[in-house]
Amino acid sequence: MSDLEQIKQMMDTLTDDERRELALSGMQSIELAERRRVLSSLRKEREAKEAAEHKRIQMLPNSHWSKVHLLERIENPTQAAYEQKIFIPELTFLGVANQPDFGAVLLTFYPMNWTIELKSLKKYKDAFRDSMISYERLANVMFEDMVAAYEPIRLRLMMQLRPRGGISSCLTIDSDWKIRGGSEEFNDWGANTDKFGFENHSAITL
């Protein structure tokens, strides 16, 4: 076995803490200028890897993050029209910079043959905790999953993100919009000027 293979085998047996300690001790043994050069090189390498991963993620289809298999549905007990609003006060996921993001989701749901089984909805939203995804992509993934699972007359999804750097964002998708394949049958969103739409309006007549 060569010296390089022996070193590699030894490194594989070390814990992460032991590797960090070994790296620090090695850094302390070199000159300050060389240490700075090494750290700069490592930072650039890390940034390049992050940029490449970000680009790779951007190219993936929404189906890559789909968790529609977790959503369960129950039969709609009535054919009479009604509106259901579901508020998810905390949705956690990893942003594209691999940092935790937190948001709230408001669903406005007009059921047809199926309605939402809430226990499965909780499992579904919790399944995104370790997903590295932008909130714009996540909102679209959740919208597409719910439309596929529940086949509603209408689904309106609003996602509000907690402020970061003093700025809060909100993203809305409505199956009633023509641009999303709807017929704008309800058109109740035209005068929606309340704060991010999270102040619930009274139900409308279908």
Would you write up a description of this structure?
The chain is α+β, with helices and mostly antiparallel strands. The chain has 2 domains: 57 residues, no CATH class; 136 residues, GTP Cyclohydrolase I, domain 2 (2-Layer Sandwich), CATH 3.30.1130. The chain contains 5 helices and 6 strands; from the N terminus they run αααββββααββ. The strands form 2 sheets. The chain has a 4-stranded antiparallel sheet, covered by helices on one side. Strands 1-4 form a two-stranded antiparallel sheet. A hairpin with a 2-residue loop joins strand 5 and strand 6. The C terminus is likely disordered.
Overall form = elongated
Class by SSE composition: alpha+beta
Give the strand order of the largest sheet, numbering strands 1, 2, ... along the chain: 2-3-5-6
Total beta-strand segments: 6
Termini Cα gap? 77 Å
Task: State the low-pLDDT regions, or none.
Answer: 200-206
> Mind telling me which CATH architecture of the largest domain this is?
2-Layer Sandwich
Q: Describe the biggest sheet? A: 4 strands, antiparallel
By CATH, the superfamily of the largest domain comes out as GTP cyclohydrolase I, C-terminal domain/NADPH-dependent 7-cyano-7-deazaguanine reductase, N-terminal domain
Strand fraction band? 15-25%
State mean pLDDT (0 to 100 scale): 81
CATH topology of the largest domain: GTP Cyclohydrolase I, domain 2
What is the C-level CATH assignment of the largest domain? Answer: Alpha Beta
> How many structural domains?
2
* SSE pattern, N- to C-terminal: HHHEEEEHHEE
Radius of gyration: 24 Å
Question: If helices are DSSP runs of H or I spanning 4 or more residues, what is the number of helices?
Answer: 5
Portion of residues within helices: 25-40%
